[in-house]
C-alpha cells in the first residue's frame, strides 16, 4: 500500500494513493457563499469545477493559512480538492504496520503509522465526500 504524506503544522497525515488523482499547487479559489466553514471554495481544474476543502478547518483545528498544495481526491466520477501545507512524499508501507485505534476518538482517522520517525495519522478521506454531500 502507498500513502501520500503531508503536513499540517508539525503533524504528519497520510492518504492512500488509490484515492488520489493528482497533486497541484494552490490556484485561484472562487468563494462560495453559505457553504460549510471547511469548504474553502471552488477551483477550475482544466475545465472541471472541483470543491476545495480546507483540511485544517475540516479537522476543526487551528488554521495557519500556509497551504501550498491541493491534493485532488477522486471517488468514482466526483473530485474534491484538499488544501494542505507541504507534501512530504509517497511512501510504501505494509498494511500490517498500521495501528488501528481501539476507541474511535476521531472518525476521520483510520489508523496510525510511523513514517520518518513521525507519528502519521492515516485519514479516511471518504468521510470528506460523505460530509460534503449537499454542502454546496
UniProtKB/TrEMBL annotation:
Residues 1-134 form the CheW-like domain. InterPro entries: CheW, CheW-like_dom_sf, CheW-lke_dom. GO terms for cellular component: cytosol. Signal peptide: none annotated. It comes from Vagococcus hydrophili. PROSITE patterns: CHEW. GO terms for biological process: chemotaxis; signal transduction. Transmembrane segments: none annotated. PANTHER family: CHEMOTAXIS PROTEIN CHEW, CHEMOTAXIS SENSOR HISTIDINE KINASE-RELATED. Gene3D superfamilies: CheA-289, Domain 4, SH3 Domains. This is Chemotaxis protein CheW. SMART domains: CheW.
Amino acid at each position: 500500500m502507498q500513502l501520500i504524506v503531508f503536513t499540517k503544522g508539525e503533524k504528519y497525515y497520510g492518504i492512500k494513493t488509490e484515492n488520489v488523482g493528482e497533486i497541484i499547487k494552490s490556484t485561484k479559489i472562487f468563494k462560495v457563499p453559505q457553504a460549510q466553514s471547511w469548504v474553502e471554495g471552488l477551483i477550475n481544474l482544466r475545465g472541471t469545477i472541483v470543491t476545495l476543502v480546507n483540511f485544517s478547518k475540516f479537522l476543526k483545528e487551528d488554521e495557519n493559512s500556509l497551504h501550498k498544495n491541493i491534493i485532488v481526491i477522486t471517488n468514482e466520477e466526483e473530485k474534491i480538492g484538499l488544501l494542505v501545507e507541504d507534501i512530504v512524499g509517497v511512501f510504501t508501507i505494509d498494511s500490517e504496520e498500521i495501528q488501528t485505534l481501539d476507541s474511535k476518538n476521531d472518525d476521520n482517522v483510520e489508523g496510525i503509522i510511523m513514517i520518518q520517525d513521525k507519528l502519521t495519522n492515516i485519514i479516511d478521506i471518504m468521510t470528506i465526500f460523505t460530509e460534503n454531500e449537499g454542502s454546496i
